[in-house]
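Researcher: Let's continue the batch. This sequence belongs to 6-phospho-beta-glucosidase, and it's 482 residues. Same format as the previous ones, please.
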Amino acid sequence: MTTKTKTRFPQNFLWGGATAANQMEGGFHEGNKGLNIADVLPGGKQRLNILSEPGFDFEIDKDQYSYPNHEGIDFYHKYKEDIALFAEMGFKSFRLSIAWTRIFPNGDEEEPNEEGLAFYDRVFDELNKHGIEPVVTISHYEMPLNLVKHYGGWRSREVITFFERYVHAIFNRYKDKVKYWMTFNEINSGLMMPIMGLGFSIQKEEDKYQPTFQAFHHQFVASSLAVKACHEIIPDAKIGCMIIFAPVYAYDSNPENQLHALQEERLFNYYCADVQVRGEYSPFMKRYFEKHDIELDIQDGDLELLKENTVDYIAFSYYMSRTEKKQKTADDQVKGNIMSGVKNPFLEASDWGWEIDPTGLRISLNKLYERYQVPLFVVENGLGAYDEMEEDGSINDDYRIDYLREHIKAMRSAIDEDGVEMMGYTSWGCIDLVSASTGEMSKRYGYIYVDKHDDGSGSLERSRKKSFYWYKNVIESNGEEL
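Model: Same format as before. Here are the structure tokens for 6-phospho-beta-glucosidase:
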């Protein structure tokens, strides 16, 4: 007879929160920083449509648009105040990204920008002072604009050299300060939104396959070079890939819909992870390339590099599941986190139409761990909602607490009942920031309210929401008190 071991959350579990430089830092013109894709993103619900229009010139037009990313929430100047609030909540880790253009303003310089390097020195020192582990995304939707305009983004193999130069600069500079890294944020998003992830937009639907998958190959090579450099320069560090994961459900038990859901999941959920974790293209993707007449330019040594330099863990964002059927109409469709599917009658949705499915997180953890057998790290999960400040200054976001509670329960069950190995959990937008998809401040995720609004007004004052105190207790109890 065996006695069940109480596992729950490991004692070294990395509780914390997640952000991105382009959505929070501001100071877009300070410290000799260069322009990146996010700097030309206009605010408003149509921002990605505007950016993807053929002929978009990647120029800033303040007469026509607003640019909320330029100020963000001014973390560039307020990082000490914000990190103190994270420490008050008891964060064990804080996921942030380095703005590539703070280090190499144009992306193709020979030498890094000292002012940018020094800024992140100060941020990492502040985190370490409070005992908070930095978890750093190397590239998070902020490709240098010069590399987009003059090289065609990741279409160009030359960009691999620039990225390798960038990672060597930051690994050597921060090797004593950062032990957790990940290469490309939501790398598989390039299938749906190439402008953000791959640095170019598709001009004609029929031309999308070849440039998209060639650009992915360049990113995979760059990611493997980053893994190789990290293991050599910082041997005690861990470096992972980062994907969007949304389990794909078939709409019903019709075998055609079941097969369709399986194929959608293979393409979106597993394609990038297979290469970065297993070190090779899957048989499914090889057939997919043949079907779509995709001929990748794979140079000598590429495949060996991919195979020999696989990641240490899988980081992923989870916001929603996705339901699919082979024959769908416009009336069937619902949208969320850059994906579309058909409405799931068993699920409710957020104010932005993202279906809420905590059980889907447990399913995701099981699918990923069963397939790859490497540690998992949920580095984005949260509820975008309209928050209202009461007359007494309180923000009672019980809906956010309910959402997070159920998702944390799902993680706990995956660990405790299913045997999944998890490293940590950094909920998205732990402090309110600019929405990546819409440029809105009103779509709030944080435990900390920032007084800034969609019209650009506001004092930028920080306030603790009800969820701030709730999450503090979750961390103190290591997930036992929810």
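Researcher: Any comment?
Model: The chain is about 40% helix and 15% strand.
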